[in-house]
Design brief:
This is Glycosyl transferase family 51 domain-containing protein. The chain has 17 helices and 3 strands. The protein has 375 residues and is mostly helical.
Length: 375
């Protein structure tokens, strides 16, 4: 086949078709302009747009004003109940479980790390960040997906946890913004930061900065170093994935990312960041945390439930804790308690073995019919 001749013929036909179509397109364009101008379509569309914006703003303003933001702390304390295989209550989880500490009793490095990572303009904005919203909007347009996240300030995250649904929609985002403005009117920046950090989940049954500091580093929140603070801030993205006990390598990588963000935000020198990056994560871990809440009596099982809900239903850990869910599981409390008695028996797992070797083990009981884990 002579391809050159073939394409030449196609080009000729297309040129002829365009020559025939062009006059009609010109006529349609002139007709559209006359109609558009005659009936003032531009002005009508602009007026309709302004009316929609006005009505929506009044609606959202009403929601924000009638929401009792003074009761924010109570909203964050709503419990999610976990049930066993027989639908008996096995325990509960809620956001305010840990030891509450004010910002003044936290290491300043923690606040610097969190602000650099989560909300760089936290101390400048009044509940929302125009630049952050613009960046999130651009990502949404590019990806054609509203679930990409981003753009929410720390205050907006508090508003979402306390009052709103989990849907990643423009409507929810707009409500979140108006509520954040009201929260900023009723609370100081330090109070907002305290509520945020005390109601954040850090994995292994631990809530809040104070208990996280005890769990992972054996210190109080006020004594956290730069590297430890960066590690804790990094866990906010994914407590199961980035905690230094279960995933030290991931935790180390995430810590280094946070340190770099602190450098970019002028909260840390590049030299100090490099020094902290050289510290092995394993050398920092020191668990001195004592679980006091009986409601979280099966921490490892509950952690697995939370992680599965995150993956399977796209529910964030903070949302799961704050929305008052009822979670039904395959947990068998008799199996769980019996196995715990075995593990507590020093005869099976001696803490003072003659050769110094600590005995380690793992156990699982699976329902063959459903595949659900009983313990």
């Amino acid at each position: 086949m002579d391809f050159q001749r073939f394409f030449s013929t196609i080009k000729k036909y297309l040129s002829s078709f365009w020559a025939w179509l062009k006059p009609y397109l010109v006529q349609f364009h002139h007709w559209r302009k006359r109609i558009w101008k005659k009936y003032h379509v531009n002005k009508i569309l602009l007026l309709l747009g302004l009316i929609v914006v006005l009505v929506m703003s009044v609606y959202l303003f009403y929601i924000a004003k009638t929401t009792k933001v003074q009761e924010l702390k109570a909203g964050l304390q709503e419990e999610t109940v976990i049930y066993d295989k027989d639908e008996n209550e096995a325990g509960s989880v809620s956001s305010q479980k840990g030891t509450y500490v004010e910002v003044k009793d936290m290491s300043p490095h923690v606040v610097d790390a969190v602000v650099s990572t989560e909300d760089r303009n936290f101390y400048q904005h009044h509940g929302f960040d125009i630049k952050g919203i613009a960046r999130a909007g651009l990502r949404m347009v590019i990806r054609r997906n509203a679930s990409g996240g981003g753009g929410s300030t720390i205050t907006q995250q508090l508003a979402k946890n306390a009052y709103l649904s989990l849907d990643q929609t423009f409507n929810r985002k707009a409500k979140e913004l108006f509520l954040a403005i009201e929260i900023e009117k009723n609370y100081s920046k330090d109070e907002i930061m305290s509520m945020y950090l005390n109601n954040s989940y850090f994995g292994n049954g631990v809530w809040g900065v104070q208990d996280a500091a005890r769990k992972y580093f054996g210190v109080d929140a006020t004594d956290l170093t730069v590297g430890e603070s960066a590690t804790i801030a990094g866990m906010l993205k994914g407590p199961s994935l980035y905690n230094p006990i279960d995933n030290p390598e991931n935790a180390s990588t995430r810590r280094d990312t946070v340190l770099q963000l602190m450098v970019d935000n002028d909260k840390l020198s590049a030299e100090n960041a490099q020094q902290e990056e050289q510290v092995a994560m394993d050398s920092l871990v020191n668990d001195t945390y004592q679980q006091e809440d009986e409601g979280y009596q099966y921490p490892y099982y509950f952690d697995a439930v939370i992680e599965e809900a995150e993956e399977k239903y796209d529910i964030k850990a903070d949302d799961l804790m704050n929305r008052g869910y009822k979670v039904y599981t395959a947990l068998d409390m008799n199996f769980q308690d019996g196995m715990q008695e075995v593990y507590d028996n020093n005869g099976y797992f001696p803490s003072d073995a003659s050769d110094g070797t600590m005995v380690q083990s793992g156990s699982v009981a699976v329902d063959p019919n459903t595949g659900g884990s009983k313990l």
